[in-house]
Amino acid sequence: MPKTLLKNLSLIILFFGYSTFARAQKPNAGFRYEIKRATSEIKVDGEANEAAWKDAETAGDFYQVLPMDTSMAAVRTDVKLSYDDKNIYVLFINHDTLSGSYMVESMRRDFSFSKNDNDLLFIDTFNDLTTGYSFGSNAKGGQWDGLMSSGSSIDLSWDNKWQSEAKYYGDYWIWEAAIPFKTIRYKKDVTTWGINFSRNDLKSTEKSAWTPIPRQFPTASLAYTGDLVWDRPPPAPGLNISLIPYLNVGRSVNFENNSSAEINRNIGFDAKIGLTSSMNLDLTVNPDFSQVDVDVQVTNLDRFELFFPERRQFFLENGDIFNNFGFTTIRPFFSRRIGLNAPIYYGGKLSGKVNQNWRIGAMAMQTGRNSTNEDPGSLYNVFSIQRRVFKRSYISGIFVNRDLIGQPVSSDGLISSYNRTAGLEYNLASEDNKWAGKAFYIKTFSPFETQNNNIIAGNLARTTKKWQVALQVESVGQDVQANEVGYVKRTNYIRANPEISYLFFPRSGPVLSHGPNLVLSQYFSQQEYQTFEYLHMLNYGVTFKDRSVLRMWGAIDYVKPQQGFDPTNFANEKIAAGTEHYWEAAGFEYDSKPQSVLTYAVSTRFGGYYADGNRMRLEAEVGYRFQPFVSILMRANYNEINFQDDERLPEGLKNTQHKLWLFGPRIDVTLSNKLFFTNFLQYNQQNNNVNLNTRLQWRYSPASDLFLVYTDNYLAENFNVRNRAIVLKFTYWWNL
């Protein structure tokens, strides 16, 4: 049956892709903003006193998206656009209907959307309803910028050169910005782009947009953009070459190895060359991919490694053409594999739009010797291509290659002389955004594998205001070897994962919507088609009109592990493969309303665990903000695991209790939207580590920074110092 499901799902996706072709226009094609060249010079200062703004067209009469999408917005927002030879200019005038001050966390970059009064701009420069750019600001000038892909996803790790200012005037506030044409990619001589404007007003708990958007979709949905119509073709960006050098000086000491202090000096650069207005060449020499911001740690009681997103700038522009292939648990290419334990010497990337229907991406990088096992360096090559079909759907192909430069010296056999992956994918997105899905085929090549090295998977989802119905199926071969260049959670299985949700909308009272959600996830072995794992979960969610959210859930788990594993992820005691485990669990989650200066969230889990054990999880976070300069967030996670004398357990886990704490505060101090001071403390009992990270960032010029970072790591058991480092990093964005 699972193989039949895979075939049927592919046919259904193709059918709905064909049916969307018959529609002629996007839903909001009647919304037009005619942008005109500025009639005067514009100074970006948060003041709308130039003649150019008086002459510009006004986009007003916003539509309410939340709490309901059936009326015009209660708060008034006016937006104006203009341009000159170098920049697009943006002006938001945000009027208030309720008294009181603005709501912001701080002035830090890429703020949390739900916890700030903010304006957002969405630009679909190719009008393909799929890719684009987002720029924005909160009410005190904290900037937001990101690359858009998959119709509504925004990667906020992207950072580029632009400027903006925000000013508060008592009963309204203004956001003004200048976005250089050199910062974005667009097709020459095309005079119609997609565009939308969004505002989040926490005092009135209203989210609104220039065009009407169904409440089940984010305001970032490019399917619901209007048209930005230019009075003449946008100016060509001209010579578009950026050189971004860096200088990194640091001192580190490893106390665990009794090593003497090391002085590290690194210098290198990135270069961005606009070959055309829509095609970009990225080059890097001796890049500094050190993390000036640490990953947020979690207590990992899963059987698989954690997935952390890419945040390194070189990989981000047009990164979706490489990184979005497959599902989050099945990625043929995962860029964080590159340079994980080895220095990167140099690399290059060509990516962008060839024309309205074709996108391409090609990347090559070379790394040095592996610092973990002394294996020689590797050469990585990635090629990807996309062809648009119908209105918003596309077919894409990818080829990923890693070749070891020399012979491996490892005796553990964990690294091969080469690893290659090829894939083909069809991605469906209907014009009204209600149908979405994909189907893909992946094949891997490695000296370690034999014959069963194929992946076939797909999903299909239908989303309306009240209903969400989805089905996902996966088939991953036993000999798939993708984790040297990609991310594949497990192998040798077939999975069926249907999901259904329904929402009720009360006519009165404090509740905005509520309803159930049922998830059935079933794993079958590829050979015998027998169930070896399932998760059946019933959720019930309640969303209140003040935007607080309550979710209650109950679940039934069955696991027959394919490989031995440690259920504590630190005791080094493994439960044997093939043993059977069944348990029930329940819990709830609650997020408080985001309008308060004091916010909090609670999450719980009570129930069984492996080998008839039990596990309790208590998790909470409390945030407080001294607007707009200081934001304090305290997180705590506690897991308690109890095992009995069970024959399925190794001797070291019988009759044991394990208490795992993970907690720590994060303090953000933003003296302006250009000067940031962050303190991050993480006590992780599972990893026996206490991490202290202090970072000072001064954005002295757009996209140019000075960082001073101090890091300490201690043993959690006795607080002895493990290692210590201080780093000074200087970057400058230079447009030639």
> By helix and strand content, what is the structural category?
mainly beta
CATH fold name of the domain at 31-230: Immunoglobulin-like
Query: Termini, distance in Å?
Result: 60 Å
Question: Helix count?
Answer: 3
* Fraction of residues in helix: under 10%
Q: Please outline the major beta sheet.
A: 24 strands, antiparallel, barrel
Task: Please tell me what the overall shape is.
Answer: globular
Characterize the structure shown.
- This protein is mainly β.
- Among the domains are: 1-27 and 278-289 and 303-458, no CATH class; 31-230, Immunoglobulin-like (Sandwich), CATH 2.60.40.
- The protein is built from three helices and 41 strands.
- The strands form three sheets. It has a 24-stranded antiparallel beta barrel. Strands 1, 2, 3, 4, 5, 6, 7, 8, 9, 10, 11, 12, 13 and 14 form a 14-stranded mixed β-sheet that branches. Strands 18-27 form a two-stranded antiparallel ribbon.
- A hairpin with a 7-residue loop joins β15 and β16 (262-274).
- It is globular.
Name a few traits of the molecule:
736 residues; mainly beta; Immunoglobulin-like; 24-stranded antiparallel beta barrel; 14-stranded mixed sheet; 41 strands; 50% strand; globular
Topology:
Blueprint: H1 2-21, E1 32-37, H2 51-55, E2 58-59, E3 63-66, E4 77-83, E5 87-95, E6 118-124, E7 132-138, E8 143-149, E9 153-155, E10 163-168, E11 172-180, E12 192-201, E13 206-209, E14 226-230, E15 241-254, E16 262-274, E17 279-285, H3 320-323, E18 330-331, E19 344-353, E20 358-367, E21 378-389, E22 393-404, E23 418-429, E24 435-445, E25 454-463, E26 467-476, E27 487-488, E28 493-502, E29 511-524, E30 531-544, E31 549-559, E32 581-591, E33 598-608, E34 614-626, E35 630-642, E36 657-670, E37 675-684, E38 689-701, E39 704-715, E40 721-731, E41 734-735
Parallel strand pairs: 1-4, 1-14
Antiparallel strand pairs: 2-4, 3-13, 4-5, 5-11, 6-7, 6-12, 7-8, 8-9, 10-11, 12-13, 12-14, 15-16, 15-40, 15-41, 16-17, 17-19, 18-27, 19-20, 20-21, 21-22, 22-23, 23-24, 24-25, 25-26, 26-28, 28-29, 29-30, 30-31, 31-32, 32-33, 33-34, 34-35, 35-36, 36-37, 37-38, 38-39, 39-40
